[in-house]
Amino acid sequence: MSAEPLAPATPWRTATGAAVRPRLTGRGHPPAAAIAVIGYYLPLLGIPLAAFLAVDIVVGEIAHRRATTPAT
Questions:
Q1: Residue 49: pLDDT band with limits 50, 70, 90
Q2: What is the C-alpha to C-alpha distance for residues 61 and 68, in angstroms, rounded to an integer?
């Protein structure tokens, strides 16, 4: 009975050939300060959009009412 040779160990495979995920290290993740800055300013990006939508809805409603109101 001959045994098959084991696959060489790589970062993605163990010595038995099983696939594994590499461990995550601290590198590659944004620092907490960057996350805090983004979290602080991100809601401010929505304020101009909300104002634009409010004005657009009001202008559209006025135009719609003028177009559907019968002239006397």
A1: confident
A2: 11
What CA–CA distance (Å, rounded) separates 58 from 66? Answer: 12
* pLDDT level of residue 8 (50, 70, 90 thresholds): low
For residue 63, what are the domain limits? 42-72
- The answer as to whether 66 is a domain residue is yes
β partners of residue 13: 10, 19
pTM comes to 0.40
> For residue 25, is it within any domain?
no
Half-sphere exposure (Cβ direction) of 32: Cα atoms closer than 13 Å: 0
Residue 18's Cβ-side half-sphere holds a number of Cα atoms within 13 Å equal to: 4
Rounded Cα–Cα distance for residues 48 and 32 (Å)? 27
63 lies in some domain? yes
